[in-house]
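ARCHIVE CARD
SHELF: 3
SLOT: left
DATA:
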Amino acid sequence: MKLLVTGGAGYIGSVVAESLVARGHEVCVLDNLSTGHRDAVPSAARFVDGDVRDASALAMALATGTDAVLHFAASSVVAESVARPLDYFDNNVGGTVSLLRAMEKTGVKRMVFSSTAAVYGGPEELPIEEAAPCAPENPYGWSKLMIERVLDASRTAWGLAYVALRYFNAGGATAERGEDHRPESHLIPIVLDAALGARASVTVFGNDYETRDGTCLRDYIHVSDLADAHVLALDAMASGFSGALNLGSEVGFTVLEVIRATERVTGRTIRFDVGPRRPGDPPALVASSRRASGVLGWRPRASALDEIVRSAYAWRAAHPQGYTR
């Protein structure tokens, strides 16, 4: 198939692009490189340097024909979304509307959307099922939920088929691609920085949550398992499915447990300090993947916490400066 991957120079998007190329698909990556890296884009993929809000960039990306779009381009830092909500709604929601207009114009009617378990807010029950109430606690989560509503309205209005994959914390790496955010905001690479001496300590944001050790609890999925689900979602749309699916390990880990796992993997002691809670952080998010298992035939294969940390550590050891040459 001919596939467009927006945000394909970013962490998850680049790994999905790698997986699609390996399966023989013809891939175009559209990315403005505001947070992504040109070197993360697979060499076999066509690259368009541009923003999803730019009609000319979209026309160029879609010019050679496209069977489906996998949409990752978004701002995704929770604390930043609380401080700059208008930027998040502009980039995430506005960018998706711009992309959908271009798709409708060119007759592209399939999208796999990178959503988030943050659409649920602080859930009443764990693990979270898709039927749980959606009540985001931050503008990032609200922007993703609004996009899901736009996708469903487009399905009704002009026949868009879509799969919105709701996941929370991607982790780990492939041999070629890993996390390189600047500044880094994700827990596992931050903890690895401390293990490798790149930072003195880790700040744990709050230790008074109602979890087993007082720190936030999250669901971690290996990025390769996420990539598999995106590929399977293309088949699900071809079979007539549209809607939202959770991708979860159904086993959550606290911040302190991630620190301890990193100590096990690296053999190094990691210092940490406790800071105040961050605005918009729910205490616990763990997603059920029962529906995804039934619809996609998907199961995580590499998402044990130590395996996630081990692959991330191996990538960092091989790429100590990230994508900087």
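SLOT: right
DATA:
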Amino acid sequence: MSFSTSPSPVIGVFDSGLGGLTVVKALACRAPGIPLVYFGDTARFPYGTKSAETIVRYSKENTAFLLKQGAEIIVVACNTASAVALNHLQAAFSVPVYGVIDPAAQKAVEMTKTGRIGVIGTRRTIKSKSYTKAIIGLLPEAQVTAVACPLLVSLIEEGCPSQEAQRLLLREYLRPMKRDCIDTLLLGCTHYPLMEEMIQEEMGADVSIVDPAKTCAALIAPTIPAEKGAASDYRFFASDDASRFKAIGEAFLGMKMGKVLTVSV
């Protein structure tokens, strides 16, 4: 068991795989020097195809693991887990637990000029209607186009040698967004910012993109009394194939990760 000696609270972040590293990157930009522990549940990836009961169980196990590592604040970086399990985690654990859905929905509402908002996510996230409900709760007249993109997460994590193949798949998923003339697109999965440039090209410059990793970090960072000038204290864990997690994760983060440990929860 390892604990930080920093006066700042230890942030625990979990995701079904690598996508939550976009939240880590966003937090590092906004609150450098914070102590942070990350768990990627790569052995049980992806969550988007699992039942709600299974996602809740996995999320509770992940949270318990992070607490054992000294986490004092939990960030559910997985959109699917945020949609399905956030309320369960907040009820089951005494520490603050944040999700990615509400801050992203708030940002989308702030950015839209026409009220036409698009959401892309995993099957489970879209089926939960969590983003649609959050957006409508803030802007009752909003018209939300929500589309499940079940192949994108695997495409991003596994890699695809053909950019043209990626673009063709993305174009098909985004077709309803163009049909409905959205002016704001919410990336309802923390993996999707890795394709943000391509998504922006497909949608055009007039469509605003909302990144849930950045909006989540913007919500949390001001509450953390991080030490200015302190070296970042990050620890990384994966439930399977730590070497692969490290290799791909460093590309996600744009920095060295140090040692990644393989653990079971």
